Amino acid sequence: MKRIFTKKYVLALISSITVGTGIILACAGDWDDGSRLNFSPEAFVDSSYSPFYYASFSFYSFGYDNQHDTRFNKSNVNDWAAYLGSGAPYTELEYLLLKATEGSIDSAAGYAAGKLKTLPSSMQSFQLLKKGEKKAIAFLTYLSLAKQSEVFSVNNLEYEWDYESKKKNPYYNAKPLNNKLQQQYTQAKDPFLKQRYWFQLERSYFFNDSAQKAISFFESNEKAFPKNELYYRTMAYAAGAYYKLKNYTKANYYYSKVYDGANALKTVAHYSFHPQEENDWKATLALCANNDEKATLWQMLGVFYGDQYRAIQEIYALNPRSEKLDLLLTRAINEIEESLNPNSYKYEGSDTSKNALTALINRIAQAGNTNQPAMWHMATGYLYMAKGNYQQAAACYAQAEKKLPKEQGEKEQLRVFKLINTVSVAPKADAKLEKTILPDLGWLLDEHINKEVRTQGAINWIKRTLAHKYSNQHESIKAVCFENDCAYYSDNKNIEALKSFLNKPNKSPYEVLVAKQYPLKMEDLLEYQAIQATYANKLEEAISKMEEAVSKAGPGTVSVEMPGNPFNGRLQDCHDCDHEAPQKIKYTKLSLLKKMKDMEDKIKTGTDVYTNAMLLANAFYNVTWYGNARAFYDCNVYQCYSSEGTRVLTIPGSMEPANKYYSLALSVAKTDEQKAKCHFMLAKCERNEYYEGKVVNNKDSLYTSDNRPDFLAWNGFKALKQQYSNTQFYKEAIRECGYFKTYTRK
Amino acid sequence: MKKYRSLLVFVLLLAACQQQKPDRPISFYYWKTQFGLNGYEQDVLREHAVDTLYVRYFDIDFKPEATQPEPVSPIQLDSSIKRYNVVPVIFIKNRTFERLQPADINTLVVNVSRLVHQINQSQQLTTREIQFDCDWTESTRDNFFEFIRRYRDIAVCKISATIRLHQVKYKERTGIPPVNSGVLMYYNMGAINGDNNNSIYEKAIANRYNAYIRSYPLPLDVALPLFSWGLQLRNGRVVELLNKTNFTQFNNDSNFTILTNNRYQAKHACFKAGYYFQQGDEIKAEHVPAEDLLEITKQINQHTNRRIGKLIFYDLDSTNLIQYEKDIYKKVRSSLN
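YS: structure for the whole thing
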């Protein structure tokens, strides 16, 4: 049983942040890392296997391994720090090992040995170099040769687009270097140094000499060294040498030992492990010294080639208690989970193969002889649950409970599964269920409680399921709190009911939990109501709701300023032009509404009716989708999309209030110029209404442009042409609007 | 006599016309990451006087976890390439243009042109054309076309692009790339699945597209398929593409049974040719036999109005070439109008 947040795990996480951004960014985008799947490898599997936790697209960070040059940076520095002791500050070692050039290391070595009098400027303050200790001199001698090796052993992939850095130098003459390495290797008495020279020489043979020589050198000396990370790094080169010779049997055998022996090399071994023919594979199995080595090979086959069923069977037969089963089981369950996802494009086996796998897992769980019996019971229970056999699932979870170890991860996993099962089996979401699930649901949904298991999938599933149950029971408020439903907002009664619920004092603990799940806030609802009231031409109500929203909200959509002057009315709508034009007064939603109300009041009292009606009409026009102030209706409720990703709430496009005030302006217009302008504006409204009905709200309109009429003459155009062709406005309209010009020539 | 004389003149004229018809150049795509030709490949090129190779220089991909597009597997050239005129081909994964921000197009253009230059420099090559191979779609066309336009602004060379059949048929939606010419990829037209159609070339499927070729508003060369591959099927679903696999080796392997002339089934789970097969997996081998290649030229003759320029075979690899008689290229060339 392994805890996930061991120190090692945290270290690995830190190193992955410093080494590259790949893994971090992977979680940020639409990269599916499998974290929405419920069965958590983190709870059951040693974290050293984390690159092989199931992800639907690929192995974690795989295919994108960019650590070729940096994988061992940290362990190198750590190894040397331990060897050199307290006299070697970590930062100095980091600089010397990872940054210093070959030339500066040579100078430093010369200085430490007393041959040179000055240090390179970057190392002037280095304590390590000043004492002239034997170990430090040996370190620098080694480092000088190691730096020379970088010419063939380092990829320099820092800059992806640089071709030169990717080219290996095929003409490198390694003879002098190899001679020096050989000499140092032979002379070295210190086992630490000797092993490092062994590694250097092996690597140089791999790149620069015959494969056979690399193999012989490894095999004739390997017994002398401890089986540490460096040993397996050396072995990986011998494996590569066998691969070059097409001896896949031996190469794969070595890679399996590397995979099992050194966590940092697991990904490398994964890349390189390639049985070609069945005979290679059988021969590799035959090389194994014991069942554990065989289990490693079967695990590699099961994980790398996706045959968990066969691998579990084989390993279980070799050793039921093998920890190698853990990863295979979590991958198998995650794969089945993936196949239950209707949106998954990935094929994860037929029903027959899934049934066989389920039977196998069940059989092993019942035998109870693995190292993690609770995990197998949970797996069986989870598979039952996925098939809707909730009673059997509950029985499995009860068995798991009896075998549950102390580790937090497994306890949490069981808690999540039991909660899902309880919700699944309940015919109704009644008071009894609410009472039963409250503690576990509260725990699951509380973001402040750190959890070791994956919860994202369970949270989504439980919320959606409860929402459906409540919806069927006509408890739409609870339903919308668990799963926001855009259609809910089309009825103002619903919004009022929701507001009352959110405002309700003395909520029960369950109601508190439900209200907390609602993704929007009171001010969002008020803002939305204010916007709706505006389109209904109820400016007073709109102002009052908007004022309330403003008083509750911090900075948000409610305080946004309109990007252009919403009182502009153009012949040709040009949002960008309006947005770029200098504005003396910037309007927020609220100040716009107040200004509109002023105008409305003036109209009512008969003050400058034409101008005010025209400006008010322009504002009503501009706050729709067609106008320059779309920001007016941008609010959190409008951003609601249904679960199918379609917009349920139609974008405001009604021309009704604008029409009303343009018509009013027309009725009081005194001059032909004024009247001409009104007709043109009314024509724009008519055009928008046409699009609103025929195109925007018509799903079939896409790609059917051929069926549409190529020209429509609006009433406003007709009036303009028939009655006002002598006006200045008419000429201006012809100049500005090509469509109108075309009409006049028809 | 007079009558015969005029007939004679006509026959002579006809002969003269025939003599003047120049041989259509043929060429090949080279699609491996390390340039090197074996004896067989060199022979084929020599025998057919091939002087131009379309060489994949690198791919471009915008990986999900990356912040910018990156080159994938740039080719390593050797000096033998200097014998040929080289047209660098850059394969751009369509998802690159799905995520690329318009503001970053210039950077990509500069990076690509610099990398092409560096690869050319490695063998002191001069190239006069570049080809972009991208299965662009309606949603990526704007970025891809802008990329090409910007490339044209900085590079003094001809620019061509591969054109897939669906892009020909739906040109109103997918648009015409702003290039000097296109290469019509007359293959990979079908769905890659376990049905009885050949996903590389199937006459009935080709017929759905043929009528549109004639009116495609770009000068076109044509690329024909020489490659073969296998589809590994599990319960009727494709789980793996088996590239460059010689399928005769499945005939004598006791782990497999032969179902039909191009289908095999794994009797037991096993490794074969570097791939792993679960028990029951099927393999559907696909390739385009010589008669189909000649059928393709017939189709092209019918539907392109003699407008096809070069003939380019995909791809230059002896494992593909040995599956055909050596005169196939001549036959295909001469059957094309």
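YS: worth flagging: Chain B touches chain A at residues 63-67, 70-71, 74, 76, 111, 114-115, 118-119, 122, 234-235, 237, 239, 255, 269-274, 276, 278 (CB under 8 Å).
IM: good catch. Also Residues 2-20 of chain B form the longest helix (19 residues).
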